[in-house]
Design a protein that fits this description.
The structure holds two protein chains of two kinds. Chain A is mostly beta strands. Chain A contains no helices and eleven strands. In chain A, the strands form two sheets. In chain A, strands 2, 4, 5, 6, 9, 10 and 11 form a seven-stranded mixed beta sheet that branches. Chain A has a four-stranded antiparallel beta sheet with strand order 1-3-8-7, with no helix packed on it. In chain B, the strands form two sheets. In chain B, strands 2, 4, 5, 9, 10 and 11 form a six-stranded mixed beta sheet that branches. Chain B has a five-stranded antiparallel beta sheet with strand order 1-3-8-7-6, with no helix packed on it. Chain B is globular and about 40 Å long. Classes of the chains: A mainly beta, B mainly beta.
Chain lengths: 118, 111
Amino acid sequence: DTEVTQTPKHLVMGMTNKKSLKCEQHMGHRAMYWYKQKAKKPPELMFVYSYEKLSINESVPSRFSPECPNSSLLNLHLHALQPEDSALYLCASSQDGGRTSSYNSPLHFGNGTRLTVT
Amino acid sequence: GESVGLHLPTLSVQEGDNSIINCAYSNSASDYFIWYKQESGKGPQFIIDIRSNMDKRQGQRVTVLLNKTVKHLSLQIAATQPGDSAVYFCAGTGGSYIPTFGRGTSLIVHP
């Protein structure tokens, strides 16, 4: 079991649907991340929140909309996705991090949401 | 940005042997490196990290070596077990403090 919890584990959605991925951590970490991982590829960074503020957006299309309601929660809202957006979406947290940080700490990942867009 | 790559996509070993997974990086300003293990259906799991002021760090059955001169690091797993079968990623951070992942090595342990 990981200390970062992601729901749902699996999600199938049509291209016109709106859905949300959720992530929760209770380690007191102040940085949270969304990564996208395609099969047999490394995770690719999408967004970073540092102290509940969006600090990095890696040129992600606007059909992906992150939200950080508080320091423990991170959401990813999905709308009008394409089949090529099908992937494993990973949430991670770290004690500190992002471009506002002067301290490196390891990321703790959840087990991801397996998203299929039909 | 950081570019982190691995020499071999797949490594097959016999149970009980030692495994060595290599990783090269390109950004000489990188100062923090992490090894992750990702099992099928799971997220990456932190194994061990090392900062650039160190050459070697040991954990339980794992050792990470850092050679800054040639910008290379390795993960050594002692007495490899079937449960070690997974994809291993190295990640490095440069000035952005955001880890960039290498492409991964699939470790297959044969009983």
